[in-house]
Every structure is written in C-alpha cells, then in structure tokens.
Specification:
10 helices, mainly alpha, about 240 residues, two-stranded antiparallel ribbon, single chain, about 5% strand
Length: about 240
C-alpha cells in the first residue's frame, strides 16, 4: 500500500535543493567579485533560464540571499548586491581591564605571535629588519608603549600574512600588558630592572629574526610572552593570597 503521507516530501526537498543551488551560485559570484556591491542581479527570468528552475525557486533563493545580507530588493526596480557586512569584533579592547583579562590576552598572543615570529624570520626583508631595529632602539631608549607595539606590529607585517596584522591592529595597545596594568609594580620589581629584562627579551627576538633563525625567533617570542604571563600570574596569586 502506498504511503500517501510521504509523497509530498520529495518535491519539497528537491525544491529546497534547487533553491540552495541558486543561492550558492549567486553567493559565489558576489564573494568572488563577479557581482560587485551596487550591481543589479539579472532578472528573475534570466536566472530561471540560467539555472533551469522555476520562478518560485528563484524567489526562494533571493529570499535566502536577502536574509544573509547579501542583496536587497527594491520594489519595481530590481535586486541589488549589498556591501559586505563589517566583520564582527570578537574582542573588545574596552573590556580588557583586569589581570585576568590581560592573562587571557597573553595566552592568545603566545599562540599567535610565536608563529608570527617564526614566519617573520623566514620571510622578512632587509628593509623590514631595519625598521624593526629602529623600533627596538626606541624601546631601549624611551621604553615607550608605542615603540613596543610598533615592534610587534612590524613582526606581524614581516610574516607577509595580513591577518596577523589585522588581529594585532584590532587589539591595539591591549597587546602590551603595561599599557593596561603597572606590570613592574605588580611583580614587585624596580621599574628599571623590569624594563631591562623586557628589553633583553625584545633584543633576543630581533636578533633571531635578523639572522633568519625561525626556531630561535619562535623560542624568543615564547620566552618573552611567557615571562610576561608568569610575572602577572605570580602577582595575581600574591594579590589573591594577601
């Protein structure tokens, strides 16, 4: 005996699959720049002919594209490609206030910047090394947070991978613990002794990149960031215990 209740399922599923195929095709054209922001999509009739689907399928596909924020339909005019949405900010610098917050950022940086240092040592140009050297001299002479951040940004740039730069740019000065907390005071160090240790760590990173030593650069960056983390962790434990 035929199960009549199952009969409508197949056409609906096929309908959804056809619509999804149109969505994927148009979405790919948008992502690849074939269809640019502000451009008008082909008419429903043209899309029907291109994909061999019904008007209902096309309209469902357009509805999905609208829901995804890829297109908008202006009644009586047509459907247009939208500007891509701005990427969501996964980390807000304004929320990084406590020792716990800075420790969490340092854990992220250890994962991120040790590999950045490795890549920078392998890929850096002579010009990039000279820029790093200038930033290092500023760190040694001024001890400024800006020079410290510039040094780390130059390493990110030397990777040749813009995503390292994008992430560090988004984090801003939150990548430098002493920009948020008095690290020397928290670790019960004399400011000069604290800066001397940090300066030596920066020098080790620079020299490894300068001599094109990826493993040495990775190790030096890990030592630098791990030392920062341990200094703050010790201060946090003493604070909690006291």
């Amino acid at each position: 005996m035929t199960d009549l209740t199952a009969t409508p399922a197949a056409p609906k599923k096929r309908h959804r699959n056809l619509a999804q195929g149109v969505v994927e095709s148009i979405g790919a054209s948008i992502r690849e720049g074939v269809l640019k922001p502000g451009e008008k999509l082909p008419t429903e009739s043209v899309i029907m002919e291109m994909h061999g689907v019904s008007r209902t399928v096309v309209r469902e596909a357009i509805s999905h594209l609208q829901a995804a924020g890829l297109v908008e339909t202006r009644h009586g005019i047509g459907t247009f490609v939208l500007e891509p949405p701005a990427p969501a900010l996964l980390i807000s610098p304004d929320t990084i206030r406590t020792i716990e917050d800075v420790l969490a950022i340092l854990e992220l940086r250890i994962s991120l910047e040790t590999e950045a240092a490795w890549l920078a040592a392998a890929r850096r140009t002579d010009a990039q090394v000279r820029e790093m050297g200038v930033a290092l001299q500023r760190i040694l002479q001024e001890g400024s947070i800006e020079a410290d951040m510039q040094f780390h940004m130059l390493i990110a740039q030397a990777t040749g991978n813009r995503y390292f730069v994008d992430i560090l740019t988004h984090l801003g000065t939150t990548i430098i613990p002493r920009a948020r907390l008095n690290s020397a005071q928290l670790s019960h160090d004399e400011p000069s002794a604290y800066l001397q240790r940090v300066n030596r760590e920066h020098e080790d990173i620079f020299h490894a990149i300068e001599r094109r030593d990826p493993e040495g650069a990775r190790a030096a960056m890990r030592t630098h960031l791990s030392n920062s983390r341990e200094r703050l962790r010790k201060a946090q434990e003493e604070s909690a215990g006291g």
